């Protein structure tokens, strides 16, 4: 199990802004990380009502399940259980999460009936990362249902300083500041048809 306090800022990008950042930071498609998230909730959207997010993420050679629990704006507790690639794919195929896990225990503490969880959406991302002053940037191109979007994330250790650095970065690269929701929220706006 991995416990982490995630402090991050996000901004949706236009395709042109995304492509310009790829050029500016010399990011190669061949170096990108490919990941697919399958999101879970109960039929009555209990996790959504608690502002929590649960996913099983599949990378090229392994998987993980992660629960995000809000602490305050731009800050959340991330609980992650490692999975083998076979475990992750089996959970997704069966529409379940791993019951013998730290995440299942945490959900039970929050009175979430683990057996009632089911897949509610899926999103795939091509992700580039690069270091920046005060943290790490992630440049994402995401696909879900028939949608595609582009996003810049900035993870930092200091929310106050991080916000200033992120805003300075956006201004320097002539990127308009846009209200940006979590990936799970965007994926669930467009239910499977």
Automatic annotation (TrEMBL):
The record, for SUPFAM superfamilies, names: CYTH-like phosphatases
| Pfam families noted in UniProt | CYTH
Q: Which CDD domains match?
A: CYTH-like_Pase_1
As given in the record, the signal peptide range reads: none
Locate the CYTH domain: which residues?
4-193
The transmembrane residues are: none
Task: Supply the name of the protein.
Answer: CYTH domain-containing protein
